Predict the 3D structure of the following.
Amino acid sequence: MSEYIDYPRWPQLAREALRQQLDVKRDKYNVNGRVLDYSRDFVGYVVTGMGGSGIVGDILLDYLSIMLRKPIIVVKDLELPPYIDERYLVLSISYSGNTAETVSCYLECIDKSIPVVAISTGGKLRDLAEKYGLPYVPVPRATAPRYALPGLLYSTLNVLSLFEPSYRDRIIRDSISSIDDIERAVREYTCIRDLALRLSNKHVVVFVPRPVLSIGLRFKNDMNENAKQLVTVCMLPESEHNDIAAFVRKHRDVEILIVRSSVTENLNLGYRKHADAVKKVLEEYGYNPIEYKVSGSSLLGEIMYGITQLGMLTIDVARSLEIDPVSIEAIDRVKKYVS
């Protein structure tokens, strides 16, 4: 295993997922005498998944919100929102294929005749897709679900491009260039590696603009799972109406990270003003926030650049604390009590 587990393999996992020939047809499928229509122009997409699989929905929401004129709905729950019907396409994502919440949503789709695509390495989702003769997309394996992100994400982007022919070329083009951004993120990681000691054993607060919120969410998840450390995510500009008030007090053992995105700030100069203002106020209250600038060829590229580097950073934080980054003892304990 590499020092950074599967991160150096991320470009390979992404390309493998993006290049695979999909057994997904825009057709009508008969399930128990009812028709699931995949040939329609869907009004929106629903992405179901939990943990390392669920973050795919957050990334797609950020990336596709500026492109598609239809909603991307992220579901990390036991059931679908009641308004989801056959007009939507559901993407059920579970690395193992056995995540209880995701399997539950998949079965709900079958019960309600909602078109659904299963994306996993196997498990119950694959078995259900085979049972009902519905689309199934296999993904490359990794050390653990959270390290399989590129396989899950780029497989899903591949599927979505089939159902959005008007945007297919752009989605594929952005996907390909973003894989180059992942490679560059791994190569340039040494530029931020020293931050690991500064963030080690601290409560990290990350301020992140809404269009790249998935960077902050994934960083929180990685810090939780890899370094077993707390992180608070503050979304800009919303956090200026609540979170910022807490910094009137000087909190011990807190480090602050502000994510800066060139694509986001160029789309709307307001994000630059908000980030600058938050940094200035924090400094006025005696804090020394770290500015972290993501780099990429597109919004998707910036998101994956940031997620890659910050993920690697959490591995170094874990190692500085002499913690096994792969172990998820607490998560396994909860699953034992729930099952």
Q: What stands out?
A: Residues 64 and 72 are 8 Å apart (CA to CA).
